[in-house]
TrEMBL record:
Residue ranges of domain ABC-type glycine betaine transport system substrate-binding in the record: 54-326
GO molecular function, one term: transmembrane transporter activity
Protein name listed in UniProt: Substrate binding domain of ABC-type glycine betaine transport system
InterPro entries (alphabetical): ABC_Gly_betaine_transp_sub-bd
An annotated GO cellular component: ATP-binding cassette (ABC) transporter complex
Source superkingdom: Bacteria
Pfam families: OpuAC
Amino acid sequence: MNVRVTHTNKEGRMRDRLTARRLRLAGVAIVALAALVVSASAMGGGTRSTACGTVVLNENAWAGSTSNVYVVKYVLEKNLGCKVKVTNITEGQPNFQAMADGKIDVVLEDWQNLASFPQYTKNGSVVKVGGNGIVGVIGWYIPRYLLKQYPQFKTWKGLKGKESVFKSPELGSQGMFLGGDPSYVQKDRMLIKGLGLDFKHVVAGAEPAQVARWSQLYKQKKPVIFYWYDPQYLNAQYDLVRVQLPKRFKGCLDDEKKGGDPKKFACEYPSYVLDKLVSGKFAKSGSPALAVIKRFKWTSADQNAVANLIAGKKMKPDKAAEIWVKGHQAKVNAWLGK
């Protein structure tokens, strides 16, 4: 009798232990499953889209800027579920004021214009978040075939007394200097005065009109000197040479709209580390797009490849961006932090 009771109690205790163990294992499984569900939800498209929300990128009036904007737009939309809007507000102070007013979140290529408007960084309405990987150069350019004919045109000193080589029908015997897009920061009128050159500064209009003017002269093998810059996808199509201007000096000025002594403008344009800017509001938003913007970096060759598809081959910007992204996934993954 006692033996039977002992045996029964032992079996009962074993069953209780097994039941408790099963319950513990089931609890662990439930917790693990719950963690997976939470993780999956966090990674899901719906939550990702809500977290990102709307991002406003500003496109400026040159093909390189268009390339930056639409490649980043494609990456943010396809990978983070962001809703991206594109604005077209002029570079410089209009950009910065629009950022302060909450109309722009991101500028992907600023040619150091922000340095002229320190009030926007002081009050925190515009924040620099690093370079986009490209160093920009602005200057005076001539075709290489002209340099072969006039080797002295390698520097500005060789232009002096030879300005009439660049004469045009509308100016008579006076040499023509073809200025850039009026919306760009320039100093060529002041630079011409400061160097004592007999050039008439002529503006054809926005960049497409300027390109049409100098490229026509290029194709006719005629003399032309003009404001130009790099990176620019057309530099791969036309053999151009930058004229050496006087070296920079302390106090050298670069924005003729602000006025001043022409002699203070008599120096070459600076080289520009092209900055990425975000509005103060966007910098504090917690948007996952901000990390991608900070990591975004590519080369002038990358930019020119996309710009050539858009401006050269007349491809829609979204399609050009898609082609580039699919061909450079490793670089895009770095922007995404993968």
